[in-house]
Amino acid sequence: MIVEYIRYRIDNERRVSFEHAYAKASGVLSRAPQCVDYELSRSVDEPECYLLRIAWSSAEDHLQGFRRGELFAEFFAAIKPYVGDIEEMRHYERTAVRGQGGSVPSLFQWAGGAGALERLTEVFYSLVGKDELIGPLFADMDPDHPRYVAMWLGEVFGGPDDYTRGRGGYQHMLAQHLGKAITEAQRRRWVNLLLDAADQVVLPADAEFRAAFLGYIEWGTRLAMHNSRPDAQPMPQAPVPRWGWGVAPPYEG
């Protein structure tokens, strides 16, 4: 992905028309398959300064796919009167340095931290052990397995990187699923039992947390099922995923 930044200087008399023009142009960006997302910001310190950020799927997709595509003419027609007001226009590559600030709690914090996740996995694997469909898959389970899964979930949900440092990260988790040929019925039972355990240990039940929690569980179990197929060729190395709130941030009424 590549990020394009365009800095404008717009005088006060043209501010409303400028924002209206970009509101119109944004409809084109919303339809462009090369566009990941976009945002237009106005400076508080110098209100005549605007900064447009557009994330493109790649520099080639922007410069060749979008600019030479059928949507560009419509986009350019909307913002053409303001091209002369551009002070700077550059592309930037993202680095690994990024994250959330402390004003928004992580899912790990909202859930109650390591202790809450350990209680969750203890109850969950007690349910698993009694289940006829997936219980046999864990017949020889390491007694510490629930704690290890809690470590994984903690790191995924924004907690400390204990699983990466102590268990080998993604590669180790991947190895647990290779060749297991997990079925959809087994995957669905795993999800259902984890949700039952979440209710039993009283994880936060607000809609925002549960939506994010279930979003990861659905994504993670479907990926695990895919990687467990005999013919699977999963990515051999990757960081532990970091899961956030997504569309709905935490709400405190």
Describe the structure.
The chain is an alpha+beta fold and about 250 residues long. It has two domains: about 1-95, Alpha-Beta Plaits, CATH 3.30.70; about 105-225, Globins (Globin-like), CATH 1.10.490. The protein is about 45% helix and about 15% strand. It contains ten helices and four strands; from the N terminus they run βαββααβααααααα. The chain has helices at about 15-30, 60-65, 70-80, 105-110, 115-130, 145-155, 160-165, 170-175, 185-200, 205-225; strands at about 1-10, 35-40, 50-55, 85-95. The chain has a four-stranded antiparallel beta sheet with strand order 2-3-1-4. Strand 2 and strand 3 form a beta hairpin. Helix 1 packs antiparallel against helix 3 and helix 9 packs antiparallel against helix 10 (about 205-225). The longest helix is centred in the last third of the chain and has 21 residues, at about 205-225. The chain is elongated. The protein starts with a strand and ends in a 26-residue tail after the last helix. The mean pLDDT is about 95.
